[in-house]
Amino acid sequence: MLNRNRLILLTMLLLTALALWLKAPVAGSQGLTITAARVEGALPVAAPDDPLWQQATAVEVPLSAQMVAKPMWPSPSIKSVTVRALHNGKELAMLLEWADDTRNDSSLRVDEFRDSVAVQFPLIEGQPFFCMGQQAGNVNIWHWKADWQAALLARQSLQDAYPNIHVDYYPFAEAQENIYLAAYTDVDYLTAEAVGNLLALPVPSTPVEDMVAGGFGTLTSQPAEAQNVQGYGVWQEGVWRVVFSRSLRSDQADDAALAPDKLHAVAFAAWDGANGERNGAKSTSQWVSLQLGAAAAAAPAEEVAAPVGAPAAAPERAVPPTNTALVLVFVGLLALAVVAGAIYLLTLEK
Amino acid sequence: MPDVYNWQIGRTMVYPYPEAHPRQQFAAVFNINRCIGCQTCTGACKATWTFSRGQETMWWNNVETKPYGGYPQHWDVKALKLLEEAHQAAGVTPTWDRTQANEKAPYGVYNGLTLTEAAGPNEVVLGYLPTDAEWRSPNFYEDTSTAYKGGPFGLSPDGATLPEHQAWFFYLMRICNHCTYPACLAACPRKAIYKREEDGIVLIDQARCRGYRKCVEACPYKKAMYRGTTQVSEKCVGCYPRVEGADPLGDGVPMETRCMAVCPGKIRLNGLVEVAEDGSWVEAPQHPLYYLVRIAQVALPLYPQFGTEPNIYYIPPRWAPRPYLRQMFGPGVDQAIERYIAPSRELLAVLQLFRTTQKMIFRFEIKEGPLVREVEVNGKMWQMYDDTVIGFDAQGREAVRLSVVEPLHQRPPERPNSI
Ligand code: SF4
Ligand code: SF4
Ligand code: SF4
């Protein structure tokens, strides 16, 4: 049986491989460019309402269903995120906004999932596969989680979710004087925490997890001491607004290097917890471009189309790909890759 | 997706990974007929593995009362319903073809869909995520009687005569089945679940799990569970340190798990069976589990039609309605009950081995004894012999020796009541 998904995946991988081989310049495949406005002084890393954001042009990045790897998700809730970016020569901050009717900021109960959003950068020259990267084409992923944001305020126990729960006692949770109970505590009973799983840490240092991936199923947290992406998110009247920030420079190999003189590729993904979205059940964007603006060329304020807080309102459709010839070459390669992929798969099925 | 051979359904089936089998497989036989519902097994597991915060509603071992009980509530009804709907959508009537039974397909061939085959285009396994309410209490409503339907004035129309007892129930004791083709493993998008090469125990890597709960959704037996306080999933670990022989009590040889070793009803027998490269069990007529499952065929897998090839085998209860039991344990039920009711000489001896030593028994021997009883069972004469069965541990040392007739000790008259 010819497997459609395998065909799509193979085609996309072939295409990205060809693009990499041709050293195609990074131009957003959706033709969008986000320009990080250059500002002076501290960035509003924990203030989505700060007037400084008005200096950045809002770009609405369309999202679509992840339909390549199982579990696939044909009907995700979130159709786009609106992105603004600022930098001050040392640090980058990105404000992501999207509509979501429900705030899901706990994943304590077995049947509840968090809202979250992610920013992805390639760790190689060019564009690896836009969804989670590929082998030899790692990506750096920043994943903001609504429940981590909430946990920074107060870590929840099951007693918070279920006030009437009855438990006789928790051995080893607290040292006891009673001779029948243990006089010591032991973290090893929190198995995931004991093996250093960042998800299990009692209190995260930031609501953003800094990770690396090289294809589906390979997502890996960077070590606790390498977590250097900050974040802040608020939900108000059906809109999430989340700020990501990191210093432009990082000496870690698994961190994207951000330089003012370069056109970066960046992609986004978002999850609606109320819709059961987690892992590959998500909406993703394709690669778009990110340009760090020069000091002199700060974007004039009148170009700001969308007022902060109204994400979907009249966003800017930014620069289309520049080189028409290159686009033609791309289309040709796409056709070639599809044919090659189909032939390959047909021979595989025999 | 590759095809793998599942001997319990007598055919190849769809699975996301190609066949690769462990050298030995963790397995057990549970004799439903003897369970007294004491929950000692449940408590032993809880006290060993799941007593901490976030594990409050986690019962890796649970004993539920069939037909109404279930933990999480209605797990089997819901899984069966999903499968039934998939069959209807596909226009398939699931049946078992007993005529095709052979050495490689002891129960015949299942012609319906398994859970990997019935999955929709976007998923790997057909499943559902139970709600938190469904996990909340492991024996919810199980001891609630049905309403009394009286006649006029609430009086019984049958007067004082006692009606024939129509009710039936049995206990179903459940742990993770350490399946040959685990649905939990198949569904994990991160490959955070693995099956150990040395004993086939299925574990969730606590470092790689990200709490997506795809395993909780996929496992038809609902034995992968989510821990909200660490945001990752956990499951029965098959008491692997004991299986490895690391328990100081076991003096280096594999020991039965905690839930098995404590059972006062003596209903459980736990061990490791040797697995060939093609996944079949290496012929070992003197291995108690091999004998019970493959030779006597008195112990059957739970819902083999799900297709995970579970490795906990049940001796079905004699008294429950057969259609219900056939749905639950497949078409081997009638033969299994028939053989259990009037056990062969060898079977009766092997049944004595249950829960008599904490060491896993790898081989048994029988020394024949005298005929002690002759009675009619279901219209046929049945003979009982006082044979002696000897169980040997992993190193071939004698671990236990038992006779079919329990030795009788009479207290001398001067100490009739002493302990
Ligand atoms: S019983 Fe469930 S959790 Fe256990 S191995 Fe099978 S599918 Fe996985
Ligand atoms: S095998 Fe061990 S971990 Fe699994 S249910 Fe039994 S006691 Fe619990
Ligand atoms: S300990 Fe044994 S007899 Fe008691 S409930 Fe568990 S399986 Fe049944």
Topology:
The complex is a heterodimer of chains A (350) and B (419).
Chain A: H1 4-21, E1 33-38, E2 59-62, E3 64-65, E4 80-87, E5 91-99, E6 116-122, E7 139-145, H2 146-153, H3 158-161, H4 191-194, E8 208-213, E9 220-221, E10 230-236, E11 239-247, E12 263-271, E13 283-284, E14 288-292, H5 324-349
Parallel strand pairs in A: 1-4, 1-14
Antiparallel strand pairs in A: 2-4, 3-13, 4-5, 5-11, 6-7, 6-12, 7-8, 8-9, 10-11, 12-13, 12-14
Chain B: E1 3-6, E2 11-14, E3 24-31, H1 40-49, E4 62-66, H2 75-90, E5 96-97, E6 109-110, H3 132-135, E7 170-174, H4 183-187, E8 193-195, E9 202-204, H5 214-218, E10 224-227, E11 232-235, H6 240-243, H7 258-261, E12 268-274, H8 288-295, E13 300-301, E14 312-315, H9 322-329, H10 333-341, H11 345-351, E15 363-367, E16 371-377, E17 380-385, E18 388-392, E19 398-403
The site of one iron/sulfur cluster has 14 residues of chain B, from α4.
Would you write up a description of this structure?
The complex is a heterodimer of chains A (350) and B (419). Chain A is an alpha+beta fold and 350 residues long. Chain A folds into two domains: 51 residues; 213 residues, Immunoglobulin-like (Sandwich). Chain A is 17% helix and 24% strand. Chain A is built from five helices and 14 strands. In chain A, a hairpin with a 3-residue loop joins strand 4 and strand 5. In chain A, helix 1 crosses helix 5. About 11% of the residues of chain A have low confidence. By secondary structure, chain B is of the alpha+beta class. Chain B folds into two domains: 339 residues, Alpha-Beta Plaits (2-Layer Sandwich), CATH 3.30.70.20; 58 residues, no CATH class. Chain B is 19% helix and 21% strand. In chain B, the strands form eight sheets. A four-stranded mixed sheet of chain B has the order 12-3-14-13. In chain B, a hairpin with a 5-residue loop joins strand 18 and strand 19. Chain B starts with a strand and ends in a 16-residue tail after the last strand. The model of chain B has no long low-confidence stretch (mean pLDDT 94). At the A-B interface, helix 4 of A face strand 10 of B. The structure holds iron/sulfur cluster (3 copies). One iron/sulfur cluster binds next to helix 1 and helix 7 of chain B. One iron/sulfur cluster (SF4) binds next to helix 1 and helix 7 of chain B.
